[in-house]
Amino acid sequence: MKAFVINAFGPADVFEKVEMPTPQAAAGQLLVQIAATAINPLDYKLRRGDIPAFTHDFPAILHGDFAGIVSAVGAGVQGFAVGDAVYGCAGGVRGRQGALADYMLADAALVAHKPQNLSMAEAAAMPLVLLTAWEGLIDTAAIKPGDRVLVHGGTGGVGHIAAQLAKWQGAKVYTTVGTAEKAELSREYGADQVINYREQDVASYVERYTDGVGFDVVVDTVGGETFEQSLLATRVGGRIITVLAMGKLDMTVAWARKQTVHCVNMTWPMATSVGMEHHGFILREGAKLAESGKLRPLLDSQRFSFSEVAAAHVYAESGQALGKVSLTRD
Q: What's phi and psi for 23, nearest 5 deg?
């Protein structure tokens, strides 16, 4: 099979096109013929070597998100058959082959049937961000109807899915964005109120939208300074979800205001094989929401093929994309 691999950490042009043996499905596994994948920040961080402990051994096939057709079913697998259209996030990290290839081995527990109303490219854009947003808002923060939920980065990968999940749960949804174009998009993807962070500081929008009390739940999809701003935006006793709790973080405000900080790392089941079945459950629930019109992925208008993976990574890292950057197999 054809695959795009890295044999060392480096810039986007480190990818090499190679021929590799097609893997065989073992017990509990599916062999999926890949149709599409999508780029998450995790993918280019792994390529650069930012998180070496989580990287697949060289030659490494990156990318966890995929959509495709089941080509073979391993022993003991139930609920899937050859020819099924599926999606998931099942590789590209520590010992698991990724999706930048003709075929990918995936633990069946990490896979679900593709939403019928989504294209392969659309479905491939959903898994990682859906799993992250669900683990944060549904599993951990346990949001409920009437909660005021602030999502930073309303048109980002995790952000636009988090906003839609919060809306589905009956929350009042607020998002932050940096442009008028993104504000309009964010309203289309779940936001009740959109805040331009370039025009309003934290104190101003907390006063305007919560009478100075603060939001019940804040989702930090950016990290760094935004994490500290999230603490200031959250009410006393409120909850903060962060997907990028890296480096040194000042927790003084969280302590003083009795807040709870939840860290989400959806790669853990892939890296450890612990909790994989729950990921399959989330993907099945996400497919139902997509098919009922309550959840849809935001894809950037610029599309790429697998052979253009270097250009796709450059574009994704540039910060110019509106939504997810997708790639379809040549």
A: -70, 160
Q: What is the pLDDT of residue 67?
A: 98
Rg, Å, the chain Cα set: 19
pLDDT tens digits, residue range 116-143?
A: 999 999 999 999 999 999 999 999 999 9
Query: How far is residue 88 from each of residues 10, 102, 131, measured CA to CA in Å?
Result: 26, 16, 10
Give CA–CA dist 284/96, Å, rounded: 22
Its sign, for the CA torsion 19, 25, 28, 34, is positive
Give CA–CA dist 312/318, Å, rounded.
10
- Report d(CA 211, CA 140) in Å as an integer: 26
CB 292 within 8 A of CB 302: no
Architecture of domain 2-125+271-328: Alpha-Beta Complex (3.90)
Residues spanned by CATH 3.90.180.10 within the chain?
A: 2-125+271-328, 129-263
Q: How far apart are CA 62 and CA 321, in angstroms?
A: 20
Q: What is the pLDDT of residues 23-50, one digit of tens each?
A: 999 999 999 999 999 999 999 999 999 9
The pair of structure tokens assigned to 190 is: 């779940």
Question: Which fold is adopted by the domain 129-263?
Answer: Quinone Oxidoreductase; Chain A, domain 1 (3.90.180)
Which residues on adjacent β-strands are paired with residue 261?
240
Q: Looking at this protein, which amino acid is placed at residue 253? A: V
